[in-house]
Specification:
Blueprint (H helix, E strand, L loop, with lengths): L6 E4 L3 H12 L4 E5 L4 H4 L7 E2 L5 H10 L2 E4 L6 H7 L4 E2 L3 H8 L1 H9 L8 E3 L5 H11 L3 E5 L9 E4 L5 H7 L5 E5 L3 E11 L4 E3 L3 E6 L2 E7 L6 H16 L5 E10 L4 E7 L9 H4 L4 H9 L15 E7 L6 H9 L5 E5 L10 E8 L3 H17 L3
Helix pairs in contact: 1-11, 3-4, 4-5, 12-13
The structure holds adenosine-5'-triphosphate (ATP) and magnesium ion (2 copies).
Length: about 375
């Protein structure tokens, strides 16, 4: 039957949990590789899960034995183990795509060949102050020093404002492979979720993302005060970038909208993405539904990716106290049309994503008015 293939998921965090929610509704078994009782496993009672880490080759091999197609909720996985098991199970997206994308420098070098506009960047080979100073002269200040690997939520980025910051920057990112990027003077950050299927590259509408301390805080769908021409251009750029990689599934594409209304790629992720959570309430098919369908070659009517109603997503991030996320979401209980998602990660740590809330309304203005009290609560709870 169409829903008989078993899906293996590397990683059982919140993204894996929301994938399992989608799989569950179609009676598709999803086997999760992560520690016991991880958020995704908590909502999935069967004995097909694997205990271990997506960085352990043995655990990846074990997962491969239990399923027909493997996917990942995170790009920081062991792609050599994936390469090995790819002869026995389908890996979606491809291990090559994940391997290239997980190294942000390699990702950008690859995308450059496809003519994707990006901030100018330079690789560091020795990580010395002299080398970075020379790059600073080429790129100008400020510039963004970035770790090539293991980066998320801005952990891996350091803004270098002047030559004087160089020792501190290198200390903050020491022992990591580095590259540096020219500063992008953007007026807005945009994102597009792309779904790559057997024959097609589809996209959701362009959204506006707002980061605070380099962590995504709010997502507005559609992007506010952005003409449809830019919405379409951003979707086209995102589809073009994702087309440069092999494999099926959801890809999250982050972009900068510059002062002159041109677009530049910030980075892309080979997976479902925080900037696409709004699709759960905002579209007929969520990014998680579409990802499951794409990797199993099930139909995805393009109309199901259209925006149903303006939507705003607010991340609930661990604050000053272990229960601040619960206090924040309590306020959301009283907001009409608020979809509340808690990830069941236990006690909050500052900066940790604990949940999110999406408010939908007939107009963006109405959605903004409805979510504002919750934004106020979240702002008072910051660590
Ligand atoms: P994520 O959690 O999205 O994976 P990350 O740690 O990989 O984040 P980036 O997406 O590269 O980091 O950067 C995080 C944020 O830092 C961006 O959303 C943007 O606000 C800012 N930023 C990144 N690169 C630049 C740049 N070249 N110029 C200006 N700001 C930048
Ligand atoms: Mg990233
Ligand atoms: Mg990013």
């Amino acid at each position: 039957m169409w829903n008989s293939p078993k899906v293996g998921i590397l990683g059982g965090g919140q993204l894996g949990r929301m994938l399992v929610e989608s799989a569950n509704r179609l009676n598709i078994q999803a086997n999760v590789l992560d520690v016991d009782n991880s958020p995704a496993k908590q909502i999935s009672a069967h004995d097909g899960h694997v205990t271990g880490s997506f960085k352990e080759p043995d655990a990846v091999r074990k997962l491969a034995e239990t399923c027909d197609v493997i996917t990942a909720e995170i790009e920081h996985v062991d792609t050599y183990a994936l390469e090995e098991v790819a002869s026995k199970v389908r890996v979606e997206p491809s291990w090559q795509a994940i391997r290239t994308i997980q190294n942000k420098f390699n990702q950008k070098e690859h995308l450059r060949k496809y003519g994707i506009p990006m901030a100018e960047h330079r690789e560091l080979v020795n990580n010395t102050p002299e080398e970075l100073a020379q790059i600073g002269e080429q790129l100008g200040y400020p510039m963004m020093l970035k770790s090539k690997t293991m980066a998320y939520d801005g952990r891996g980025n350091f803004r270098v404002n002047s030559k004087e910051d160089i020792p501190e920057a290198l200390e903050a990112l020491k022992d990591r492979p580095l590259y540096s990027e020219k500063w992008a003077y953007f007026k807005m950050e945009l994102a597009v979720m792309v779904i790559k299927t057997k024959n097609d590259v589809l996209s959701y509408p362009t959204v506006e993302t707002v980061q605070e301390d380099s962590i995504c805080k709010l997502v507005y769908a559609p992007a506010r005060n952005v003409p449809d021409s830019i919405n379409q251009q951003a979707q086209a750029l995102a589809r073009k970038a994702v087309s440069a990689f092999e494999g099926k599934g959801a890809f999250g594409v982050e972009m900068f909208l510059l002062e002159d209304n041109s677009l530049m790629l910030c980075e892309l992720a080979s997976r479902i993405h925080n900037s696409g959570h709004w699709t759960i309430e905002g579209c007929a098919l969520s990014q998680f539904d579409s990802h499951i369908r794409a990797i199993l070659d099930l139909p995805i009517p393009p109309k199901s990716l259209e925006l149903l109603q303006p939507s705003i997503m607010l991340n609930i991030i661990g604050g000053a106290t272990p229960d601040s996320h619960l206090k924040a979401t309590e306020a959301a209980l009283s907001i009409p049309n608020a979809g509340i998602h808690l990830y069941s990660k236990g006690a909050a740590k500052p900066g940790r994503k604990m949940g999110h809330v999406t408010v939908t309304a007939a107009t963006m203005h109405e959605a903004e008015t409805m979510i504002q009290p919750l934004v106020d609560v979240v702002d008072t709870m910051r660590a």
